[in-house]
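Posting for a labmate who doesn't have an account.
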Amino acid sequence: MKRSLVFVFFILATLTVHGQAISVKGKVTNASDTSAIAFSNIYIQQQNRGTHSNESGDFEFNIPNDAANDTLIVSAIGYRTFRIAVSDIDTTAILQVRMKQETVILDDVVVKASRDTLGALIQKAISRIPRNYPKKTFYIDGFYRELVLRDSLYVRLLEAAIGIQDKGFDTTTDNLRTRVLAVRKSEDYINYSLYTKMFKLIYGEKNNLYETFKFDKIRTYNNTGFRYLQSLLNDPINFELDTIFLLNKDSIYIISYQSAFNRTLQERGKIYINMSDYGITRFEYNYVSTDPSTFKESKDMAYRNGLIKSSIVEYRKIKEKYYLSFIKWTAPMSGAWETENEQGEHAVQYFDCAFYVNAVYTKKRDYDKIKKRDSESREVDLYAKTHEYDADFWKDYNMVLINPLYEAAKSDLEKDKKLEQQYYEN
């Protein structure tokens, strides 16, 4: 099938020739303090192929041989764009991509911007959504990872290559259609109580792939019911201008907000707005308990020092429109969050999920349309479906690496058998 590739993210560093591709590995860090730069966009300049760095700044990618004379680009909000010729990459060592931070110095007037001023800026960004984001149907290829943890213990892993047909921002995410290209998954070590089984029987299951897109607060701007962005302006919320970063010479205003619902619960987040067109490029959301002990005593859903839910969604501009770059979220399992650990103590089971975009196609002739009857069900857990494991597919597939901090996941999940064996058996 002929495809005109409009956009894709990519990942960086050492390279070795494997057949028709150049295998690349690398690490992206802040040049000033060597801290990792997570989720940076890494791609080939002329082909716009790429992926993202993970939470530790690490990545891998197979560059086609026809791009050997092209340029590899790394970009991230707040950093000077990094460029290197593919032919100049050292094939014997990991390429260390050290990015220089670009921050605008805030004067006293800007720092003390009032709530009304920042609220007006957010309102302007909301009003520009119909202009800044695609209205026409488009198609994206992406990589989906779904982890389940019991406190800090990993109890399930699912990874999938996904195709998504989106009708655009004039519709809600309820109209998304999805296609599964490949799946691999571990054994299921989740604790399912009698209550959990009854909950699933009464309320049914959910496909968390679809749930992922509900964490995109930007897409709620035209909901017939709750509109999250607009609610920030209507509720008693404190706004503050944190920082002004640069991205390709555009100023990105980062506005933090905090809302106190009651004595123990708060919503906190950050909104990144490109001042050149008022496009919202990134949205961070946290729902937290300010008094975690309250939740421990009542055995509720809080985990990670009071965090209940969190999400990050980022968009990237492609030909005058903003398209999804990635969504990452964590939240307790519906009907199955309360359980016990191996010591018999109270524990919380929760999802840690992410969807990373690999490519965007804007012309209908460039992708296979997903018919409604062929779209994945919203009511069936993706893990529950049977898919034959294709080792060759995953060998060549470009995906975001699991954070090295997640290496515990492998040891946790391999307590009975190797992950590769689990992939074949599940």
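Reply:
Got it, the structure tokens are right above this. Residues 288 and 307 are 4 Å apart (CA to CA).
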